UniProtKB/TrEMBL annotation:
InterPro entries: DoxX (IPR032808). The keyword Transmembrane helix applies. Keywords: Membrane, Transmembrane, Transmembrane helix. It is found in: Membrane. It comes from Halopelagius inordinatus. Pfam families: DoxX. Residues 1-16 have a biased composition (Polar residues). It is a multi-pass membrane protein. This is DoxX protein. One of its GO terms (cellular component) is membrane.
Length: 145
């Protein structure tokens, strides 16, 4: 373990952080804030255009879209804020991961769309998978003792 890892892991936990896994170095803070602000922006866009998002989810065959779309958007917003502020980071990362794991295969099903839409859906699918990977890394970081 490097000196930096030792310093990070020995830092006492702060209220709401769930664990002693805290890294307040500028690169970590900036990275969390950039990641979280992008996700929060997506969630807010969804919430501001609920009717359109619900209609799109209905067209994709999502059951109970009128309930699931606002719930999923709220999950994404809450999770992104938790990651950005590093408050309850495991729960926050789990919320974002749940959103991405549920939404990605349903809404970005590139394998079942026409040729014209395939590239866009594949790009969105791969972007979400990349975000899911980063979210898993945040979860792992938050889980360190």
């Amino acid at each position: 373990m490097s000196q930096t890892d030792s310093q990070v892991d020995s830092t006492p936990s702060r209220p709401g952080s769930e664990t002693g896994a805290r890294d307040d170095s500028p690169p970590s803070r900036i990275g969390r804030l950039l990641f979280a602000s992008g996700l929060a922006s997506l969630a807010i866009q969804n919430l501001r255009n609920l009717e359109g998002r619900i209609a799109y989810a209905d067209a994709k065959g999502v059951p109970a879209a009128d309930t699931l779309v606002p719930a999923a958007s709220g999950l994404l917003l809450g999770g992104s804020l938790g990651i950005g502020l590093w408050k309850f980071p495991r729960a926050a990362a789990a919320s974002v991961a749940t959103f991405l794991a549920g939404v990605t295969p349903l809404m970005h099903d590139f394998w079942s769309v026409d040729e014209e839409s395939r590239d866009q859906e594949l790009t969105s699918f791969l972007q979400n998978m990349t975000l899911l990977g980063a979210t898993i890394a945040f979860f792992k970081r938050a889980s360190r003792n």
